[in-house]
Amino acid sequence: MIEISHVNKWYSPTFQVLTDCTTSVTKGEVVVVCGPSGSGKSTLIKCVNALEPFQSGDISVDGTKVNDPKTNLPKLRSRVGMVFQHFELFPHLKIIDNLCLAQQKVLGRSHDKAETKGMQLLERVGLKEHAQKFPAQLSGGQQQRVAIARALAMDPIVMLFDEPTSALDPEMVSEVLDVMVDLAREGMTMMVVTHEMGFARKVANRVIFMDRGEIVEDAPKDDFFGKPRSDRAQKFLSKIL
Ligand code: ADP
Ligand code: MG
């Protein structure tokens, strides 16, 4: 579903942020990406839906090359759900309207159809009764669940998460992770930047460890937690576990 092949990216001529990154995510797979702050995790995940350009290598999503100038990027992005650390809901729109906007504007769904889908998804993330509220009236954990529901409303073929729980108060982390665990168990293809190793242990198929722009380790979950090959991954794990 996602093929990342020998990707190199520089933010400036003297600063290479990604070095020869190669990995893939197959349909239904959950891949957790971890590594120290500044190692290039967010940059890599943004390259997947072409929010960041890269200078060499290739990335394709479901067979469509994101770095091909002929690719219809808005169409591609509409199939790739993205959830960030900060929820980025539209503050002036009610929760239900947050879920309807892109369905109508991008997918051309009718208001009724978009609303029905939106309400189904709000029910799924346990927030149906908050449909008529504004984002600021919800807690951080609730807002992040809305952000996930909003991404799902587009019927994505893959979901990308960039530290979705790291801006939340500790007591709200599990309500968001629970939604993500359900999604993983339902077979969604997911690439998740997170340091929540409990989540990784529960549902990840593979764990990627990045350091200084390189994919240092890319291993099945049990191998990764059992015995990371590299010193850098071992040190990182000993600090966060
Ligand atoms: P991570 O998500 O692993 O913390 P990032 O991908 O955000 O890492 O950043 C990797 C490196 O690239 C960091 O050194 C960061 O400061 C730098 N960086 C990130 N975004 C930009 C940008 N838009 N321009 C220049 N440097 C950037
Ligand atoms: Mg980041």
Written account of the structure:
It holds the Pfam family ABC_tran. It is a peripheral membrane protein. The protein contains 9 helices and 10 strands. The radius of gyration is 18 Å and the shape is globular. The protein starts with a strand and ends with a helix. By secondary structure, it is an alpha/beta fold. The strands form 2 sheets. The chain has a 6-stranded mixed β-sheet, with helices on both faces. A 4-stranded antiparallel β-sheet has the order 2-1-4-5, covered by helices on one side. 38% of the residues lie in helices and 25% in strands. Magnesium ion binds next to α1.
SSE run: EEEHEEHEHHHEHEHEEHH
**Beta strands, count:** 10
N-to-C span: 30 Å
Spatial arrangement of strands, main beta sheet: 6-7-8-3-9-10
Q: In angstroms, what is the radius of gyration? A: 18 Å
Query: Could you name the ranges where pLDDT drops below 50 across 5 or more consecutive residues?
Result: none
Helix content: 25-40%
So how many helices? 9
Helix/strand-derived category reads: alpha/beta
Shape: globular
Q: Report the β-strand fraction as a percent range.
A: 25-35%
Major sheet: 6 strands, mixed
Mean pLDDT: 95
Small molecules (ligands, ions, cofactors) in the structure? adenosine-5'-diphosphate, magnesium ion
